[in-house]
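The protein record quoted in full:

***
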Amino acid sequence: MEQSGTSTLLQGAVQDLASGVVSALRGGDHARTAPDGAGAEAGSLTLAAVRVVGADTLLPEILLDAPPDPVRLAVFRKAVEAFPPGADAAPTVRWSHWAMARTLHALDPSVPGEPAAPPGADWLDRADWRLLTHQLAVLAPLALPGEDCAVARAAAGRPVDVARGFVRAVRRRDWRQASGAGRWLTLLPGVPDTLGLASGLDFVELMGGQDPLVALHVQAARLAPTGAAA
């Protein structure tokens, strides 16, 4: 029962954090670092929520070239340091951590050293179009203008497969996967014109936009082609 309650609290914290990011991307209030609360439990939920949202926690600073708030940056740094990937971590976990660490280095000049080398992405080359789309949706925070990591290169080499996965996700009403795949598709060369990506993203937002994580990816997709990231 306690575990279920903690899970519910974490889901709420993630939703609050993602909502704040969406608001900032839309030009509203600056993204909130974490849900309201105080004490040790609230602090741990804050860090866990930042870890779930990942590098997108600071997406307004990246896409809109906005100066980071020192308090938000400090919380983000603490989350990066608190959740290093284990030796047996899945590739998506390793890549998510790498994206967070790189974002931290880019925005916080006080962080010593250089970001670690990125993990490999060979598993994406071997993935069928369904698994490829799923994995790219999980790694949607890497879908940034000018991104040249191995994951972005794998996506760029298979635009038709990602488009196929986007359509499948829409048909299955998997709005999070559809929004993540759509975010990648806005940046990929060779996406079929017949896909109708712009109207497809509008539909995804209409149907799933009450989920802040879906709204985040859709808004990022709309901003990414002209964003500040490089």
Residues 120-225 form one domain. The longest helix spans residues 2-25. The two ends are 45 Å apart (CA to CA).
